[in-house]
Amino acid sequence: HDRPRHVGWIVDTPAELDRLTGRLTDAGHTVEDGTPQEARLRGATRLRRFTDPVGYRVELAVGETKARSAVARPDGTQPGATGLGHFVLASPRLEELRELYENVLEFRLTDYRAPGLYFLRCNPTHHSIALAHADTASLHHLEFEHGSIDDVGRSYDRAKANGAPISISLGRHMNDKALSFYVRNPSGFHLEIGCGGIEVGEDWVPHDFGVSDVWGHHHAEANPFASPAS
Ligand SMILES: [Fe+2]
User: Fold this and answer.
1) Can you say how many angstroms the Cα of residue 107 is from the centroid of all Cα atoms in its chain?
2) Closest residue by Cα to residue 50 from 41, 42, 61, 37
3) Strand (E) or helix (H) holding 38
4) Low-confidence spans in the chain with pLDDT less than 70
5) CA 31 to ligand 1 center in whole angstroms
6) What structural domains does the chain harbor?
7) What count of other Cβ atoms lies within 10 Å of the Cβ of residue 135?
8) Do the beta carbons of residue 17 and residue 25 sit within 8 Å?
9) 61 close to 44: Cβ distance less than 8 angstroms
10) Average pLDDT over the chain, rounded to an integer
11) CA atoms of 15 and 36, how far apart (whole Å)
C-alpha cells in the first residue's frame, strides 16, 4: 500500500522508554520490542512498538538518530533542533488518539480549533503532531522544518520549476506563525515546507486560535479543516 505505515518518536533515555511502556501497558496497549534489524535501520539502540487506535504502528526509540539528524549549514542556522517538524493525522478516532497522545504519552495541548483540530507538543516546538477529525483516516501532511525563509523560498522555486503540484500556496499560520507552502506528493498526501514556527514555554495557556492564517495558504482544493469562522 502506497501510504504511511509507521510513526516514530525519539525518547530521551532508556528509563523514559520503560516508563512510557508501563503507561501504555496500563492503558491496554500491547507493546513489543522491535527486531534488532529494525533498530539498526533506524539508528536506535532500543526500539519498542505498539499499534494506535487508527492502525498505525507507533515506534518509540532511544538512540543516535537524534544526534545524526543535525546538518551543518553555511548560514549557521539549525533547522530541526527540536525535531523533524510535524505531521497531522486525520481520522474518525480523534478522541481515542487524544487519549493516547495527551493522557498516556503525556504530550501537551498547545492550541486548537474546536471541535476538530488539536495541536500537541512533546518538546518546546509549538506542535509535533496535530490530530484532526475526518471521516477517513489519513496522514494529511508532513512538515519539514527549514532554517530560514530563503531555504523555503528556494524550495518553492524548485517546486515550481519541476512542476510539483502546489496544493496550498505560501502563507503564514496563525497559531505557530510558521511560513510555509505545501505540495501534494505522489503518494497523495501533502508535504509542507516551512520555517519560523514558534517555541512555547511552561507558562503557555492552550486556547482556540480562531482563524487559520495570518495571510496566504490558499487551498487549490477545498480545505478539509475549514470552520465557519475562517
Ligand atoms: Fe503543518
Assistant:
1) 12
2) 61
3) helix 36-41
4) 64-83, 227-230
5) 29
6) 6-68 (3.10.180.10), 85-216 (3.10.180.10)
7) 8
8) no
9) yes
10) 90
11) 19
Q: 61-91: per-residue pLDDT in tens?
A: 998 655 555 555 555 555 555 667 899 999 9
C-alpha 8 to ligand 1 mean position (Å): 17
* 209: exposed, middle or buried (Cβ count in 10 Å: 0-12, 13-18, 19+): middle
Residue type, 163: G
**Residues 11 and 26: beta-carbon distance below 8 Å:** no
Q: How far is the CA of 155 from the centre of ligand 1 (A)?
A: 16
Q: Cell 539502540 belongs to which residue?
A: 45
pLDDT at position 37? 95
CB-based burial label for 145 (10 Å; 0-12, 13-18, 19+): buried
In the structure, ligand 1 is a single-atom ion and the residues with CB under 5 Å from it are 143, 192
Q: What is the pLDDT of residue 67?
A: 52
- First CA to last CA across the chain, in angstroms? 35
